[in-house]
Fold:
Amino acid sequence: MREVAIVAAGMTPFGELWDMSLRRLFAEAALEVVKKAGVDHLDSIYVGNMSGGCFVGQEHLGPLMADQIGMAGVPSTRVESACASGGIALRTAFFEVASGASDLVLASGVEKMNDGADATNVLATAADQELEVYHGITFPGLYAMIARAHMAAHGTTEEDMSWVSVKNHRHGALNPKAQFPLEFTLEQVMNSTPVAEPLRLLHCSPVSDGAAAVLLCPLDQAKKYTDQPIKILGTGQATSAMALADRKDPTFLDSVQLSAERAYTMAGVRPGDIDVAEVHDCFAIAEICCIEALGLIEKGQAAGAAAAGLTALGGRIPVNTSGGLKSKGHPVGATGIAQAIEIFEQLRGEAGKRQVQGARLGLAQNMGGSGASSVVHILERT
Amino acid sequence: MREVAIVAAGMTPFGELWDMSLRRLFAEAALEVVKKAGVDHLDSIYVGNMSGGCFVGQEHLGPLMADQIGMAGVPSTRVESACASGGIALRTAFFEVASGASDLVLASGVEKMNDGADATNVLATAADQELEVYHGITFPGLYAMIARAHMAAHGTTEEDMSWVSVKNHRHGALNPKAQFPLEFTLEQVMNSTPVAEPLRLLHCSPVSDGAAAVLLCPLDQAKKYTDQPIKILGTGQATSAMALADRKDPTFLDSVQLSAERAYTMAGVRPGDIDVAEVHDCFAIAEICCIEALGLIEKGQAAGAAAAGLTALGGRIPVNTSGGLKSKGHPVGATGIAQAIEIFEQLRGEAGKRQVQGARLGLAQNMGGSGASSVVHILERT
Structure:
């Protein structure tokens, strides 16, 4: 298997971008990458997208997006794993380069969620239609049940969850691409509107439009395109039972643990080696579950990690320096690529006020549904 | 890059299967493969599916389908390229095995089109939403325009197109899995109900439910699972302008030619070496365009090929011995895998009354939309 590097990144701001269509969002991110890398062609394109069909009536994004950037002809494929679609695009692009079949592969993600569709109902297509959605539940409700169970089993509090939001908004306030680059106090989070108790508005990631893209090539060709290639050291993917009720322990995200184990093994590193991580905080409780399943925080300490400053900038293991899904925004198909871009910039020392000094090894974890799918990438400064 | 083989295949009958859900269709095909190969695990799963979201309100098919066959945990990814989703699943699975990352990868496709959704409108999400669908056109209309342009430019007749349907139904009548295993006379085809002139009902593939799956592994391990592995000798993918109006010549499917060239080059073979082919006859005119773009029939002779018997069983290059999309049925996400299964069985000498004697090299060509995406695989008897 060939070694693979990321050599360039591009992304739109995330937000309610009423003047930007699905195709324009993609084109802006993709052409930024093409320009930065100085390439005149691509060998292949992967587009992570959760539901162009349900959001804006457009499937078949592979050829559409190649066409939009003047590259009709180039193989171009849409991949989907709900909110983990971006991470999956990175992984499938990795395999195509690693196999030797292609040299220059664009891994991208895009979602246009604000265009009239009922986002909550469209997102619910990522849950089990027969066992969950048919009976009326949507994602805030599923994650509220995870939160309640976590509180009952582990003594987690609303304050613990609220500190996750406070921390991620502090980080996001330093990110010019973030949808909500503003800080909130603990009191503001804890007194925000209830959505699905115990989850409140400021525990939930927003509905967002956006696109992100990175260029992959064989590591031994990377210096042609950048002085600072970032190596993809490991990739891991896993699934879990689709319906929350079918899992042994709803508070433990086994797909996250399994995907991380696979990525750590491939990379030959341990959780303690990671310097900076982006994890899937679609709801505040999700970050708590993820950092424990990833092994970034010891079992039993995850709930209090944000309050204790362990996961903040300057803490032991900074998590979601980009602002995370909570502050940066969560255009679902783009999120996994945007996470990889934050790690890419951190490892290149380009994260500005969000920079984790001396970061050498970073992790990005992207999740679908209530954790039925998870994909982890480990990136390394070369 | 490692050499890759197909070692087992499974598929449901195709048809209006009102008692079979999306997940059950998948499970039936996938478990048939697992049983035939005698494996107790899979390393990874790819699910080709065009629009679970719009057809039955279910995205996130990767983890759902892994869970359905008792394999929660296994990495499982849905890929989409409209009606070429199955072929793309085969290609992405190929890369994962070829890269060395995984040994046992299931490539599958599934679609549940008969469950209340308006199939014509859902299928239209594969066309350009802004330039085509918004203005009211759907696929029968797009292919009718291709047919009219073909008639004007090349003198193709309604009779030429009708012979394609007659031939494919003759083949399909020999296929126990076909949705419409019945023969029609030329007169019946030419007098069938107009759908979008010059296309009539019997020039159009049906709306179908179904699933198909194949197991891939490294060629050097294949004998553990079967006495007769079939090697994937070449894979090629290409895109074209999304909107028909944006193509230089609407009668020439450049994505088909380009994807075929890439597959021929990788395989080191020429069109004349192919013994049997499955091509994407979603409408009768599509088969005519495809066999020309694939180089299976000389330029200018494609329209009359079915009438002349060139593409029939016993002819120079038998095309769509399975009955094709027209007779076998077209559950869009499953079609590309079903095509590969027909070639797999032909090369193993298992095609029964449809057998092409001595077939050594076969081709499967799967297409999305009005030809905006195309993927070609070349398989070889080992």
User: Anything to note?
Assistant: Chain A has a mean pLDDT of 97.
